[in-house]
Amino acid sequence: MRADDTIKRLTDTARGLRAERRGRGVEEWSRERLEAHQRQELQKLIRHAVARSPFYREHFRGVDLSRPVTLGELPPVTKATLMGRFEEWVTDPRLSLALLEGHLQTLERDEYLLDGYRAMATGGSTGTRGLFVFSRSEWSVLLGLMFRLLKGMGVVPRLPRMRLTAIGAPSALHMTYRLSESVDVGVYRRTQLAATLPLPRLVAALNDHPPDYINVYPSVGALLALEQLEGRLRISPSIVSTSSEVCTEEMRERMRMAWSLEPYDFYGATDGLWGTSCAEHRGIHFAEDHTLVEVVDAAGQPVQPGECGAKLLITNLFMFTQPIIRYEITDIVRIEPEPCPCGRPFRLVAAVEGRSDDILHLVGDGGRSVTLHPLALRSPLARLSGAREYQVIQRQDGLTIRLVPRESADARRVAQDARQAMSRALAQAGAGSTPVRVELACSLERDDTAGGKLKLVRSELAR
Question: For a FRET experiment, which of 22, 202, 355, 414 has its CA 20 to 30 Å from that of 317?
C-alpha cells in the first residue's frame, strides 16, 4: 500500500473517532428531536440528489419539490433499477461501471479509487450484484457509527490493547473486510480471518491468537462454538458479535453454552443500513439518525408496529455519492410497538429474518467431508462483471449455478467464467471433484415459504 494511502487511512480513522464523539449525544435525544433531525437531513439529501443525479431528477419529476416533502410522496427504487442506470445514479460523473469493474479486478486491500473513494461489490439479499462507492467523508461518517456501535458492546481502546478477531469476507470486495482493514491503525491487536477458511484452520488460528472480542458470521460462530464445546477450540472471549446473516436461536444458544455470554447482533448492509443489539433488552436498534427505515408489506404499504413486513424501504442520510432514497431491502423485520425501555430514541427491532443462506456439506478429495460457508461460493461470482444475478444450488449431481447475465454481456462467456471460477474455489477448498454446471436464466425463482426471499446459496439435499 502506498504511503499516502496510509496517511489517508489514518486521517479517515481520526475523523471517524471525532464523528463518534459527536454522535454520542444522539442516544440521549427524544424521539421528537430525532424525527426533526430526520426531516431536516431528508430535505438536504433530496435537494442534492435532484441537483446532481440525473436518475433522481427524472425519478422525482412528478413530485412537488418546491416545499418539504415526506417519504410517502417519493417513489421507491430497487437495486436492479439503480444498477441498470448506474452512471445516471451516481453524483460524480467520473464514476462509471467500467471504471469500478476495473478497479475491483485489481483490488487487494484498502486501496482508493480516484484517490478518494472506496469501492466494493455485494450480492446482497436480493441476488442482484451491486457496486457501491463511499467518499472519504462518507467513510468517516460510517466509521464513526461503527465506533459508536462497538462502544455500545464494550469494545473500546485500552491498555493493554484488546485482541480483536474479525471472521468475515475473504477479500477487499466486501464491506466486512474493508471496515476491518481500514481501521487497522494500531489501536487494537487485530486478526482478520476469512470465513471461507477450513474449520480446522480457523480453530488453529484462534487458539494461536485467542481474542478478547470476536465478530463472526453466525453460521461460522455456531460451528466454532461446537468446536469449543468438544474441546478442540480453547478461547475465552469476553465479547462476541455476529453479523451479515440471521443469528437463529439455535446458533445463539450454542454460543451461550460455549462462552457463557450473550452474543450481540451486528446488523450491516452495504446499501446503507446499520444497527446493533440493545445492550439492555432483546432486539436491535437501527441507527435511525443515519438511516430512515420504513417497514412495508409486499405492496409497499406501511405495516403496523408489532407486525412483520415483507420488506424494508431505507433512506440513507449521508450517502451522497450514491443517494439511497426509499430503497428496497428484502429483509423481514418486526418493530416493537412501544419505545425501548433503555431510553434511546431508536425503535426496537424485535425480529430480523431473511439473509440466511445454507452451509453446504460436500464430499471432498479422498472421500472426506468438506463444509463450505456460503461466502466461499458467493465470492467467486462477485467478480463477474457480466453477471446480473446468480444463485448456487446443491443437488444430487453437484452444484448448479443459476445465472442471469447482463443484457450487454456474452452469455456463453459469462457462463464459462462462472463455471471456471467456481471450480477453482472448490479445488482450493478440497472439493475439486464436485461437478459444476451453469444454467442461464432470465430471472431467479424465489421461495414463497420464506416471504419471497431468495437464498443465494441453497441446498436441496436432506441433511
Answer: 355
Q: How far apart are the first and last CA of the chain?
A: 45
Segment 446-458, tens digit of pLDDT: 553 333 346 778 8
Residue 39 and residue 320: Cα distance in Å, rounded?
A: 16
Helix H or strand E encompassing 209: none
| Dist. CA 302–CA 310, nearest whole Å | 10
Phi, psi of 145 (to 5 degrees): -65, -45
DSSP SS3 for 6: helix
pLDDT in tens, 125-166: 455 678 999 999 999 999 999 999 989 888 888 888 899 999
Residue of higher predicted confidence among 42 and 280: 42
Q: Among candidates 78, 141, 36, which has minimal Cα distance to 324?
A: 78
Higher pLDDT, 110 or 260: 260
For position 452, what pLDDT does the model report?
Answer: 38
d(CA 255, CA 249): 10
Are 86 and 97 contacting, i.e. CB atoms less than 8 angstroms apart?
yes
- What the chain holds in terms of domains, given with CATH numbers, is 3-139+271-353 (3.40.50.12780), 154-269 (3.40.50.980), 360-459 (3.30.300.30)
Closest-CA residue to 457 (of 363, 383, 361): 361
In tens, the pLDDT along 204-253 reads 999 999 999 999 988 788 889 988 998 999 999 999 999 877 777 777 88
- Contact yes or no for 419/392 (Cβ under 8 A): no
Distance, CA of 68 to CA of 95 (rounded, Å):
30
CB 438 within 8 A of CB 420: no
Is the separation of the CB atoms in 124 and 270 below 8 Å? yes
